[in-house]
Protein: Chromosome 1 open reading frame 50
Organism: Takifugu rubripes
Amino acid sequence: MDRTVSLPNQPDKTTTVTLVESSSAPGGLELVSAYQTNRAGDPLDLVALASQVQKGDDFIKANACNKLTVIADQIRYLQEQARKVLQDAKRDADLHHAACNIVKKAGNIYYLYQRPSGQKYFSIISPKEWGPSCPHPFINAFKLQHDMSWTPLEQVEKRDAELAIMDKLVSQQASLPPVTGPNFNGLSD
């Protein structure tokens, strides 16, 4: 049974309240007084009920908006990560196309220089080792990783620490017991 009522703080706006169907003897038994359950009641009770419905709708909308905001933040984060991956891939491709007269081996650091012609090339000699007789402008130093990606020298220490942690996790995984269910041990301590 639906009832339409006006809200006290918004007289020009009405809302519909769905009330539970009444029965004087549900299942053949009279459980409560028919007078109490079937009377029209105070109109302000319906207004209060309508106000609760409105608050419930507002809460549901706010809850959905909050969840969508979290998803939007995650999308922005993933877009930024994708942009960084593409940027790093372009840098790695450019570095792999730099001239080099030696066989590059993973784990070594290479120094990138640029000739007056614009040609970029790798050397195993650092600018410090060249000293004042460095033949061309130095661009940057890079470490060739085992996955054939390049890490700028200023980020090598951080990257090596991250890789050491991942290596430790991978090597310890073999010794972990099989997971049979959620494990929340240590989260409440």
Notes: Residues 1-19+46-97 form one domain. The longest strand covers residues 10-18. The chain has a mean pLDDT of 82. Helices lie at 34-38, 43-96, 127-130, 156-173.
